[in-house]
Write a structure and sequence with these properties.
Number of strands: 32
Number of helices: 0
CATH topology: Neuraminidase
Pfam family, one: TEN_NHL
Oligomer: single chain
CATH superfamily: TolB, C-terminal domain
Organism: Cnuella takakiae
Protein name: NHL repeat-containing protein
Structural class: mainly beta
Radius of gyration: 19 Å
Shape: globular
CATH class: Mainly Beta
Keywords: Repeat, Signal
Helix content: under 10%
Distance between the termini: 27 Å
């Protein structure tokens, strides 16, 4: 990462310039119950913002090649390293894909489903969901069904950083620790890896030495603010770390956005009052299984409200508005008021905070919005 501006919570992606060249931008940085009744909240007020395609042909597949013709299969997490290479957790293909600075998509690691360490395609994952990168260019992978956090060295060699194939809940060092469907990963400025340990309903911390501890939450599902293990989550799926070391979590099955301070104090920023769709302040706002989150430099949060097929914005005072999506699952570019998504998942901002990128999972595309 560029030492002059990059933060370790940052997720970055490439966009396509007018001449077809890749342009580097830096962005901050993994269904339950019945669908709620439609809410009369109006669609977003037109602002001149629009969605545009960035990468992926839209057809599920595993083809490498240029961004526009490359294929993904239900992609989820995204991140970029210091050199500007993008890594994608290509969930359906059981691979971690790399988009190099020349705009070519290749396979960094993985092939078929399994649990094998090794180099490149010799390694195997089991539904990788999210990726994060440290200052040395190591990529960390939330390997859901292997219940492990994997580490990919810059040369493509995959090792198991923490956890093992056995589901469980145990702190410890390296493979002695146990996870249960880890969904999201993020790295802070000190190289600590934070994990949204979904089915264990908690946030875990892994030091650079591989020591795993429970940072917030406990194995018991619930919904409670508090400090450390006194707090409760239900199926947290994604998280990001800001420049001050605060962690923001999409507490998916509680339909809330949670904040954890460096001291482990958990509070609810927005939502948490049940599944649905409504804008508003704090608990009056409603989400439906949000699964992606990113924080802007000014503290504004952007949320991939997955089951609502919308992109939401949370102000620094906790006021939620709808940025894009009309709520109908589909694929349509154009004005944010009429744009359509199909299970938006990963989400990222560029360095300026003016361009928002969305992994549109079930459309197998990466899209963007130039913010006004």
């Amino acid at each position: 990462m560029n030492n002059t501006y990059i933060r370790f919570s940052t997720r970055r992606i490439w966009t396509i310039g007018l001449a077809g060249a890749l342009v580097l931008t830096a962005c901050q940085k993994g269904t339950s119950g019945d669908d709620p009744e439609p809410n009369p909240t109006p669609t977003p007020t037109p602002t001149g913002e629009k969605t545009e395609p960035v990468a992926g042909s839209g057809t599920a597949g595993s083809a490498d090649g240029p961004l526009a013709t490359a294929q993904f299969s239900q992609p989820k997490g995204i991140v970029l390293d210091a050199a500007g290479n993008m890594f994608v957790a290509d969930w359906g293909n059981e691979r971690i894909r790399k988009v190099s600075v020349d705009g070519q998509v290749t396979n960094l690691a993985g092939s078929t489903k399994g649990f094998i360490d090794g180099k490149g395609a010799a390694a195997k994952f089991n539904e990788p969901s999210d990726v994060a990168v440290d200052g040395q260019g190591n990529v960390y992978v939330a390997d859901i069904n292997n219940n492990a956090v994997r580490k990919i060295a810059p040369d493509g060699t995959v090792s198991t950083f923490a956890g093992a194939a056995t589901q469980g809940y145990a702190d410890g060092t390296g493979t002695a620790a146990r996870f249960n469907n880890p969904r999201g990963v993020a790295v802070d400025a000190q190289g600590n890896v934070y994990v949204a340990d979904m089915t264990n309903n908690c946030i875990r911390k892994i030091t650079p030495a591989g020591v795993v501890s429970t940072f917030a939450g406990a194995k018991t599902a619930g919904y409670a603010d508090g400090t450390g293990t006194a707090a409760r989550f239900t199926n947290p799926r994604d998280l990001t770390v800001d420049g001050q070391g605060n962690i923001y979590v999409v507490d998916s099955d509680n339909n809330g956005i949670r904040k954890i301070t460096p001291a482990g104090v958990v509070t609810t920023i927005a939502g948490g009052s049940g599944a649905g769709f409504s804008d508003g302040a704090g608990a009056t706002a409603k989400f439906n299984e949000p699964k992606g989150i990113v924080a802007a430099a000014d503290g504004t949060l952007y949320i991939a409200d997955t089951e609502n097929n919308r992109i939401r914005r949370v102000s620094t005072t906790g006021v939620v508005t709808t940025l894009a999506g009309d709520g109908t699952a589909g694929y349509a570019e154009g004005a944010t008021t009429t744009a359509r998504f199909n299970a938006p998942r990963g989400i990222a901002l560029d360095a300026s905070g003016k361009v928002l990128y969305i992994v549109d999972q079930d459309n197998n595309r990466i899209r963007k919005i130039a913010l006004k």
